[in-house]
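Take a specimen:
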Amino acid sequence: QVQLVESGGGLVQPGGSLRLSCASSGSIFSRATMGWYRQAPGKQRGMVAVITGGGTTTYADSVKGRFTISRDNAKNTVYLQMNSLKPEDTAVYYCNKDLRPYGLSNQYWGQGTQVTVSS
């Protein structure tokens, strides 16, 4: 069974930084595309950043220049470094794994970790 476990969320002041981690199971899926998504109360879940197994990245316009997604394939872990945080970044952040190249789905999600940016 594919499992994603997130950590690193918390409460920070505007302008602060956080680093989220997502550890995934399944060594045969170590090069799968992974991403970070977020959802605020009453809002739809949206893409924040995506990274392929080869390291190609994609970012939402709202986080470009502030957030950095990276991965360590040996550890089956993806990271999201969040700098210059704004109140509008407040949301539950979810890790995602896309296993469609393996004949499975793209609906593998972590449990979510709360990020709150407030004074």
